[in-house]
Design brief:
The complex is a heterodimer.
Chain A: H1 4-20, E1 41-45, H2 49-58, E2 72-77, H3 93-105, E3 110-113, H4 121-127, H5 130-137, E4 140-141, E5 150-154, E6 163-167, H6 168-171, E7 175-179, E8 181-185, E9 189-191, H7 193-196, H8 203-211, H9 214-220, E10 229-238, E11 257-261, H10 264-274, H11 282-289, E12 302-306
Parallel strand pairs in A: 1-12, 2-3, 2-7, 3-4, 7-10, 8-10
Antiparallel strand pairs in A: 1-11, 5-6, 8-9, 10-11
Chain B: H1 18-39, H2 47-55, H3 58-67, H4 74-86, H5 89-94, H6 96-111, H7 126-141, H8 145-152, H9 154-183, H10 200-220, H11 223-227, H12 230-239, E1 244-248, H13 258-262, E2 268-269, E3 274-275, H14 285-289, E4 295-299, H15 327-364, H16 384-388, H17 401-407, H18 413-417, E5 423-425, E6 439-441, H19 454-458, H20 469-473, E7 475-482, H21 488-491, H22 498-502, E8 508-511, E9 520-523, H23 533-537, E10 545-555
Antiparallel strand pairs in B: 1-4, 2-3, 5-6, 7-10, 8-9
Helix pairs in contact in B: 1-2, 1-6, 1-9, 3-4, 4-12, 6-9, 6-10, 7-8, 7-12, 7-15, 9-10
The chains are: A alpha/beta, B mainly alpha.
Keywords (chain B): 4Fe-4S, Electron transport, Iron, Iron-sulfur, Membrane, Metal-binding, Transmembrane, Transmembrane helix, Transport
Protein name (chain B): 4Fe-4S ferredoxin
Organism (chain B): Ereboglobus luteus
Chain lengths: ~300, ~575
């Protein structure tokens, strides 16, 4: 629901875009909500992660487009590492907290947050700031450190994985929201939305991914389930030494973007461009070829928004 | 566990003394704190509390006193002073092993439906206990203190019982509760905790000692403290002529035998009206059961050798089986052990000081870090012997394998406090029996968290010295060796990089060597600290990357890279 103020703001943003970037004149229209329904992908550039999230969701008609009253929501951030928010090795806690608030505001019966971490789980939950922020916003922060939290599922038509243990929170929820952070990755080339789904499977399965063709396995899990919504924190992507990172010097602090899409392949294809890749990363290509989404950015309806401070 | 009055107990409710009540409350608190510190599987107890409580225990404090002075080193002097004034208060109140024996004794009495501590007086096993103390002191002088104390220190024995035996049971109980909570729809209420049992070789010694302690406690009260425990014997020598002693007032004593039956140390010789105060653990049970006020704490002074005399009021009810210890043998043993003890303590101090000097020298001398030239980035893949037979890895802060062997008493506090459970009690990984039960890092199970300094924060005897987080970041405890033929990137042609993914220092990078199509893990030894994240993450067996420990820890270089260049254009990149 747009207020008059919103409309004026958007107009100003669009104007500013056109003024500063004449070469991208074709994108001027992107400043305003696309006519004819929601975009395939929206990216917002700004200074405040929470405002950017709100703005991006607006393009889809708000969180209500994804979460209905009484539904169980599971949010899967990247909480892999025992690292503080400023090192951007995990999803920023502000984004997770805001999302929890929005889901509960939309009438979700419960919102769960979890990740199968690489570092010690309770330390990572704490140091990342995500556990406290999510709990304060009203989420159930679930452990994922033991096999008993997982159930076997079949992967119909899986090439490298046929059977995998998936966290019960994902299996028992109505809405699945994937909220990773964008990073370089030594093995998978890039961590974004698809790679983040490695955190919904058990430790043994994570290890078997590495043994059985990482890229194919990352793509195969999409045969089981695709997130209903993907939100990518690309505020300060980690450009090297990923996915753990060494210092803040690994971050590109100029990017300041947030990407949202229902299409996990499209969002990762776009993310790989931010990371400087000219061609699609292997698991993105495999997933596109298997029909899990579209990777041809030229064909997609992309909305690009600049938020002024 | 506060003892309750038993209806069948020799003590009618009347005479529970204030001293005894104080002792029971303080001892219960000490036992609970010790159990909490060592069993804490949810990492709730603050590390400094774990450190402070355990480092005031006698042996850890004495080791700190001798090797490096900290405030907690004063605790051993305080305990000695307390013992010289009032007797073995340490054994009855502070020592968790002592209190545990009281608990076992009470439980076993309940099971056998006998009132607790109905034990007849017995002779002291002086030759044996003085021999054990002498051997312990001799071992310390000979540089084998780390071995002797690892087996005999009462605090460390308790630590192993709690960490190696009780903790896994507590975790199993937690996990049963967690399963129930999950079934009831509250998975976040009680999270599952991984159960980690010590390897059989490291689990067996504490199990056998626990069985021995438990049997001795349930059958003979404080027999362990007064026969096996070198700390008990040492404090016994000090307390024997304590300034204030519990003794029998022969004018008041009716020789009813209540005190004797209440005594867990079996040290009251009622026939002679004397208490062997070297074995008395200052529990005050005898004071509280005496209706006549015949057992009292009294000033004996330094030179007061005579007991208050007086004619017995009534006929003796003491059984004939209770013999009286020959006092002369006692005195002789005391003098010889005390002299020997003083000499050995001085020797140990000197020895340890020289060892520290040598180590400091070595520490400064660790010039160029790691092999190979700077920037070569080749790793150490050629040394395959390291892969199949890697060196043991000692905890960061321990400085060297030698310090673990000579100083650590294997109390397992670091093992139980380690948040990532990479520390485990060694079996023969240190290459000898001296390393048995002492902490080592097992990278097949977990890895050492880059930012974590818990083991050095909690170590009570200063074997694992405190490390600041920044120092930890460059403390090298081992080095990574790669076996590329085993690496699945080359073997199976698949992307992996799990090892590089986990490397916290940037020492391990995925790079394409000349002539290679695939990027493979390459270690730059300058930056590797041996944290083991790579070995843990490696998905193949046998591991394609292995950490080999180093005898003397080193300082690694810090990878300094320029800030990532910001994207020059202000666009969206797509």
């Amino acid at each position: 629901m747009d207020t008059r103020r919103d409309f004026i703001k958007k107009g100003l943003v669009a104007g500013a875009t056109a003024a500063t970037l004449p070469s991208l004149g074709s994108l001027v229209a992107a400043g305003a909500p696309a006519s004819g329904g929601a975009p395939d992908l929206i990216t917002v550039k700004g200074e405040d992660r929470v405002a950017m999230l709100d703005r991006a969701l607006e393009a889809f008609g708000g969180i209500g487009a994804f979460v209905k009253k009484g539904q169980k929501v599971v949010i899967k951030p990247n909480i892999a590492w025992d690292k503080p928010p400023e090192l951007c090795a995990n999803t920023h806690p502000d984004i997770v907290a805001r999302l929890v608030t929005l889901c509960l505001g939309a009438g979700a019966s419960e919102v769960s947050v979890f990740d199968n971490t690489c570092d010690k789980w309770d330390k990572s939950y704490k140091t990342s700031g995500i556990a406290d922020a999510a709990r304060a916003a009203g989420a159930r922060v679930l452990p994922a450190n033991a096999d008993s939290y997982y159930r076997d599922v079949e992967i119909p038509g899986g090439v490298s994985i046929k059977k995998v243990k998936v966290h019960t929170a994902v299996l028992d929820s109505d809405v699945f929201i994937n909220v990773p952070v964008l990073k370089h990755h030594g093995g998978a080339t890039m961590t974004a939305c698809m790679k983040n789904l490695m955190g919904i499977v058990s430790k043994a399965d994570q290890s078997s991914y590495h043994r059985n063709g990482l890229h194919q396995c990352i793509a195969d899990i999409l045969r089981f389930k695709k997130p209903d919504l993907n939100i990518l924190d690309a505020f300060s992507p980690m450009m090297r030494n990923g996915p753990k990172g060494v210092t803040v010097a690994d971050l590109d602090t100029s990017v300041k973007q947030l990407l949202i899409s229902r299409d996990i392949v499209a969002i990762d294809a776009a993310a790989s461009r931010i990371m400087g890749h000219k061609r699609d990363i292997e698991h993105v290509r495999i997933a596109a070829e298997a029909g899990h989404g579209r990777n041809n950015l030229g064909e997609l309806k992309i909305e690009r928004v600049r938020m002024t401070a | 566990m506060p003892p309750r009055k038993n209806a069948k107990s020799p003590s009618p409710a009347k005479g529970s003394s204030t001293l005894r009540r104080l002792r029971v409350v303080a001892a219960s608190a000490c036992l609970l704190i010790a159990l909490a510190a060592l069993i804490d599987f949810r990492d709730i107890v603050p590390n400094h509390l774990k450190h402070v409580f355990t480092s005031i225990q006698f042996v850890p404090s004495a080791i700190t006193f001798v090797t490096a002075f900290h405030a907690t080193a004063l605790a051993c002097l305080l305990i000695l002073a307390l013992t010289f004034a009032f007797g073995r208060v340490y054994c009855s109140v502070i020592c968790p092993l002592g209190i545990l024996q009281d608990v076992i004794s009470r439980i076993s009495a309940k099971i056998r439906r006998k009132p607790p501590y109905k034990l007849p007086a017995k002779k002291a096993h002086n030759t044996l206990r003085h021999a054990i103390l002498a051997v312990t002191l001799l071992a310390i002088v000979a540089g084998w203190g780390g071995v002797a104390l690892a087996w005999l220190d009462p605090y460390s024995n308790f630590g192993r019982f709690a960490s190696t035996l009780f903790r896994p049971l507590a975790v199993v109980a937690n996990n049963i509760a967690a399963t129930i909570a999950t079934a009831l729809g509250h998975p976040a209420a009680i999270p599952q905790v991984n159960v980690s049992f010590a390897a059989a070789g490291a689990l067996l010694p504490p199990l056998l000692i626990f069985i021995a302690v438990a049997i001795m406690a349930s059958v003979r009260g404080r027999l362990w403290c007064n026969t096996v425990c070198p700390v008990g014997t040492l404090l016994g020598l000090v307390s024997r002529r304590a300034l204030w002693r519990i003794s029998i007032d022969k004018t008041a004593c009716v020789k009813c035998g209540d005190c004797l039956r209440a005594c867990k140390a079996q040290c009251i010789d009622l026939r002679a009206g004397e208490i062997d105060f070297s074995r008395c653990v200052a529990c005050y049970d005898c004071i509280s059961v005496c209706d006549e006020g015949g057992v009292k704490y009294r000033w004996h002074g330094v030179s007061a050798r005579r007991e208050p005399k007086g004619a017995p009021k009534t006929a003796s009810r003491i059984p004939n089986s209770i013999a009286r210890p020959p006092p002369d043998a006692n005195r002789r043993a005391f003098i010889s052990t005390a002299t020997f003890g003083a000499l050995t303590a001085i020797g140990a101090t000197a020895l340890s000081a020289s060892r520290d000097l040598a180590q400091n020298g070595a520490q400064q001398g660790t010039g160029p870090k790691g092999p190979g030239q700077h920037g070569q980035g080749r790793g150490r893949k050629r040394d395959f012997s390291k892969l199949d037979n890697p060196g043991v890895v000692a905890p960061p802060g321990a400085q060297s394998v030698a310090r673990i062997l000579s100083q650590c008493t294997a109390c397992q506090l670091c093992v139980s406090a380690c948040p990532s459970h990479v520390l485990e009690p060694a079996f023969l990984e240190y290459g000898n029996l001296a390393g048995l039960m002492k902490p080592r890092l097992n990278f097949d199970k977990s890895f050492c968290n880059f930012d974590c300094t818990v083991c050095s924060d909690v170590c009570p005897d200063g074997t694992i010295l405190p490390l600041a987080r920044d120092a930890k970041h460059t403390t090298r405890i081992g080095l990574a060796y790669t076996a590329h033929p085993r690496c699945i990137i080359l073997k199976d042609g698949t992307a992996c990089g799990a090892c590089a993914e986990h490397c916290p220092t940037g020492a391990l990078q995925m790079k394409k060597p000349p002539g290679h199509a695939e990027a493979v893990p390459l270690v730059d030894p300058h930056y590797c600290i041996g944290c083991g994240a790579c070995q843990y993450a490696c998905p193949v067996t046998p591991k394609a990357i292995v950490i080999s420990g180093i005898e003397k820890h080193e300082t690694a270089e810090k990878l300094v890279q320029e800030q990532v260049a910001p994207t020059t254009t202000d666009d969206f990149a797509f």
